[in-house]
Amino acid sequence: MDFREGRRWLYAMRGPEGEEHWSFSDFTSVSSKDNYQFSDGFCDSKGNINNEMPTSDWSIDFKESGNSTIVNVKITYGKLEDLEGFIEMGFKEGFTMAMENLDELLANR
Question: What's the half-sphere exposure (Cβ side, CA atoms, 13 Å) at 85?
Fold first, then answer.
């Protein structure tokens, strides 16, 4: 991953049966310690965007709070139907699981 503005992260999510679902994140803004933003969507293994699937725009904010850091994640979609489609694909459950795994990892450090 080249975590700089104007760069792309190409990655695959692998399912329990070994299937791969390729995605990209195009970093649109990277502000050290405060925020980063990116557009995210589906593609093939070479990074060719799947225009039949919607993209989303993410903004991740970090704020110091005593001995902790508050992380705020804002995800926007072009249309309500795009959001509804992601929810139907299980995004809410998957994202919740990822955040719970992060909580567990940090708690054990």
Answer: 12
Q: CB count, 10 Å around CB of 96?
A: 10
Phi-psi region of 33 (alpha: psi -120 to 50; beta: other; left: phi over 0): left
Rounded CA separation 37/2 (Å): 14
pTM: 0.87
Q: For residue range 17-65, what is the model confidence (pLDDT) as tens digits? A: 999 999 999 999 999 789 999 999 999 999 999 999 999 999 999 999 9
Q: Check: CB of residue 40 under 8 Å from CB of residue 53.
A: no
Phi-psi region of 101 (alpha: psi -120 to 50; beta: other; left: phi over 0): alpha
In whole angstroms, how large is the CA radius of gyration of the chain? 15
